[in-house]
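User: These chains co-purify. Model them together.
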Amino acid sequence: MERSPLALPFPALAPIAGVRIGTASVAYKQWTRDCVTLVALAPGTVVAGVTTRSKCPSPEVELCRAKLPGGFARGLIVNAGNSNAFTGMNGRQAAQAQAARVAHVLGCSPDEVFSASTGVIGVPLPVDLALSGVTQAHAGLGQADWLAATNAIGTTDTFPKAATASAMIGSTRVTLVGIVKGSGMIAPDMATMLGFIFTDAAVTAVLWQQMLSAAVGGTFNSITVDSDTSTSDTVLAFATGAAGHAPLTSMDDPGADALAAALADVCRQLAILVVRDGEGASKLIEVNVAGAVDDGSAKRVALSIANSPLVKTAIAGGDANWGRVVMAVGKAGEPAERDLLSIRFGDTLVAQNGMVVPGYDESPVAAHLAGDEIRITADLGLGAGRARVWTCDLTHGYISINADYRS
Amino acid sequence: MERSPLALPFPALAPIAGVRIGTASVAYKQWTRDCVTLVALAPGTVVAGVTTRSKCPSPEVELCRAKLPGGFARGLIVNAGNSNAFTGMNGRQAAQAQAARVAHVLGCSPDEVFSASTGVIGVPLPVDLALSGVTQAHAGLGQADWLAATNAIGTTDTFPKAATASAMIGSTRVTLVGIVKGSGMIAPDMATMLGFIFTDAAVTAVLWQQMLSAAVGGTFNSITVDSDTSTSDTVLAFATGAAGHAPLTSMDDPGADALAAALADVCRQLAILVVRDGEGASKLIEVNVAGAVDDGSAKRVALSIANSPLVKTAIAGGDANWGRVVMAVGKAGEPAERDLLSIRFGDTLVAQNGMVVPGYDESPVAAHLAGDEIRITADLGLGAGRARVWTCDLTHGYISINADYRS
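Assistant: Joint model of the two components:
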C-alpha cells in the first residue's frame, strides 16, 4: 500500500513511566511483521474507555465493556490481522483464553487485562497463535518503543499514527502519548478503529473516564472516512500515576483542566491522523457548520456533507461544486432554510441568500481546492449551533483498496 | 458515457390517449440533443405527485408542491441540463415565466402546468432559452414518441428508461406508461430524479394521489445509488381519463385495485431501471431484510447495508465479504442481536448464530457474485418486520463520473 500523500512524520515520543511494551509476530495473516502487542502497566494504573456502538460488536469489545467499570488495568493485548468479530463461541473463548494468559504472565487478574483485535471479520482468532503471541511479546517486554507498537497494531494503515501532549499538574509535568490505527470502516461512533492513550498522570478512574468521554465527542466521534462503523472500534486511555503527584479526583482540582485539555488535544490529533490515512485519501476536508438550531443539528448536517459521496468526489476532482453542498444540507433532514444558507470554500464566500454570490470569482476557490487541506463552511443562518467534523475525499484509491481487500 | 452493462432494451410502448409530446433543443449545456420536453394533456387530466424531502428544493419542486392540491394538469414542461436549484429569485422567476408561456400556448391556467428541471445546481435557468424551448416544442407537439421524450429528459443517463403496465377497469383496458431519468444523487426520499407516469384511466385526483403515495414507499423510496438526495426529485403521475370508463373515486370501486397494482408495478420497474443506470454500476443488488422488529426498522437496516461503501465495493470486487454485512447491520442503530443474525448471499446461507456456518463452502456464493444480479438477505431473528431495497455496486466508474462532472 502506498503511503498516504497526507501522511505526517512520526512524532518524537517520550516514554511513559509505568508502561512497558513488547511485540511479537505470529502471522495472523500472510505477513511476517509483528502483529501482537502486549502492554504491561504499573500496579494502580486506571483505565477509561469508549467502544463502538455497533449492535454486532466483537468479543474483545464486549470484554472491554465488562471490565471498564472496574477502573483498573495491568495489561493490554492487541491483535492485528484478525478482528475476531462475529465468530461465535469459539471467538469469545479465544479472546478470554488470551486475556487469561496475559493475566498469568503479568501476575494480575483477568479483569485487569484489556483486549482489542482488528482485521477481517468472521474468522475466529486462532487460540494457539494468540497464546504464543502473548508468550513471545512478554519475553520482549520493554524492548518495543512507541513506533514498534504503532506499527504492530496497524492493518491497512499506510503510515504510523501517534500524538503527544503534556500538562502541568501543580509543579509536576505529566506526559500523554497516544497511538492509533485506521483506516477504513471509519465513522462515528467510534471513528478510530483502535486507539490507545497512555499517561503518567495520577487520576481516579471515574474522573479519567469523565475526561475521555468529554474528549471523544469533538474528536474521534467527529471524523468519518466512509460512514461505515466498525464492529471493533475501541479507545482505551491508561493513567499509570507514575508522575507521583497527588491523584486528581475532581475537575475542580488544580491541573485537572490542563490534563483534560491535553487528553482532548491528543484525541484530536489522533482523530485527524486517522482521516489523513483514510483509504485512498488525497485531501483532508474540514467541514464547519454554523448557524444551526443547536449543536446536535449542526453535527448531523456536517456529517451529511462529510459523508456525501458526491461532495467527496467533487473535492477529489478539485471541482468547486458547491451545489453538492447545498444538496447535502438539504438531505440532512435537519432544520434548514434554502434562502438563509451561505457556503464558503476556504475563506471565499460562494453562495448566500439562496444563490451564488454576485460576481462570483471561482479562481480563489480553485486555488484552495488545489491544495490538500480543504475547508467547507456552511452557515444555516438559523441559530447558534456549531459543529466541526473531518473527512477525506473519495477517490479511485478507495475503490481499489476495498473492492479487493479480503482476497 | 458508456452504456450501463445492466441496461435493458427500451420496451414497446403504446400511445396514451390524451397525451401529446413535443421536444426541442435549446442547448442548456454544450450539446445539440433535445433537452426541453413539453407534454400536452387532455382537458380534465388529473395529477398526483411526490417530491424530494430536501430542505433546499428547486423552484420547480416548490411550484409542483403548490399546484398539486389543485388536482388537474394540462401541461408538463421538463428541462434537462440545468436543475435551476439554488438560483434565488432569478431562478424562481424563470421557472414561473416558463410555466406561464406553457399556459399561454396550451390555453390553460398556469396552475395546471407542472415543471421539472434536472442538471447542475446553482445556475439560473436562462429565461430566453426556456421560453424558446416551449415555443419550439409546442410547434412539434405530437411528433415526439416515448423514446424521444425519455431521451430528452435525461442527463448522465446511459440508456433510456421506461416501463408499461395495463389494468382492467370493468370491461375497459387502461394503459400506463412511465418514463424516468436517473442516475446519480439517488437516494430516498425521492430516489428517482425525475419520473413521469401517464395513463388513460379515469380516476379522481384524490384517489390517484392516494395510489401514487402508496406505490412510492416500496419502489422509488426503496432505491439508493449513493445515499445522496437530489434537490429536484419529482415523480408526477397523470391520468387523462380518455379510456372513457366511469371514473374511479374510491379504492372500493371495481378495478381500483388493478389500477393501483399496475401503477405500483410501473413504479417498481422504473425504480429498478434507475438503479440499473446508477453511475458506474456493474451489478444490481437487491437487499432483503427480514426478522426486524417492524417494517420501518427493517428498511433502515436494509438501507444501511445498501448504502455501505464497504458492502458496495466488496460486491464490485465479487468478494463474498459477509463480515461487511454484519458491520452494516451493526451500525444501523436499529434493534439487532449479533447471535440471532443470519446472512445469505443468493440462496446460500453464509452466517448464523453469530458465526459463519459450519463447513461453509464459498463456491456457490462466488458463482452468485460473478453474476450481475446479486441478492443479499439478512434475517435479524427478532420479529416480523421486512423490507426490500435495491442498490448497485460502487466502482471506479462512479468516481470517474463524479470527480469531474461539472467541468
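Chain B touches chain A through 72 residues (CB under 8 Å).
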